[in-house]
Amino acid sequence: ADSRLEEMEGRVVVVTAHRRENYGPPLASICRSLVTLADTIADINIVFSVHLNPVVRDTVENIIGSHSRILLSEPLDYVSFVHLMKRADLILTDSGGIQEEVPSLGTPALVMRSVTERPEACECGLVRLVGTDETKIVSEATRLLAGGDGLPEVVENPFGDGMSSKRICEVLISLSETAGPTTRIEAGEGTPFPMP
Question: pTM for the full model?
Answer without folding.
Answer: 0.79
